[in-house]
Specification:
CATH topology: Rossmann fold
Largest sheet: 6 strands, mixed
Oligomer: single chain
CATH superfamily: von Willebrand factor, type A domain
Strand content: 15-25%
Radius of gyration: 17 Å
Distance between the termini: 47 Å
Low-confidence stretches: none
Helix content: 40-55%
Amino acid sequence: MAKLNRDMALHADLINNKNRRLPICICIDVSSKAIRRESYLNTIGNCIKELMDNILSQPSMKASVDLFVMAYAEKAEVKREFSSLTNHEDFKLTWLGNEPNMFSSLDLCLQKLQQRLNEYKNTSLSRHHPIVVILSSGYTSESPDEYERKVENWKSLESSRILSVLPILIGDGDDKLLRKMTADQKIANATKGNLSDLIREIGNSVEELSNSTSEAYRNLKANMVSWSDIGGK
């Protein structure tokens, strides 16, 4: 019954709100290997809530941004399905295991995104270029045989302009794998304590992204990479 009610609400939202949608997926590594302190886990959760507050505070953004949030470690857990943002006081991140299975978890993100794009199409909604933000330690417990093909697939998705990938390195991470996932091999680095600034810049850029995603996204990524190179704004 709960799923039926949710599906009806989403369908009504897609029919009643005809604004062009900007789908944003945020995938967060919440393994104990990536995040060793509960305080840092709470910081990440508060940053995501601040992003939601930013979107909710501006009617044009609230009407167009379609936000999906997923946490992962040994398993993946959807924290917020695609839908219009409403109350998010209950949003909280918890550890989901020791080792991150990054790419099998990101497969779920792609499945959810494709499902949402199909829903847009079925209700004749136009959309902007999807953006996938990955907050990761850069580690995965999967073997190279398992993940190398998927790394190339993510890079291909961005090169083909199917979606944009914005990796943010967190915790005691290794950036090599994350760099391979992007067409330009550039990532943002939040290991220097500037995570709040980086997430805030996404929120500040959402309205611009919804108007002209290609150039605005390049500017956003350039700003975030520049900030992380110098250790914060």
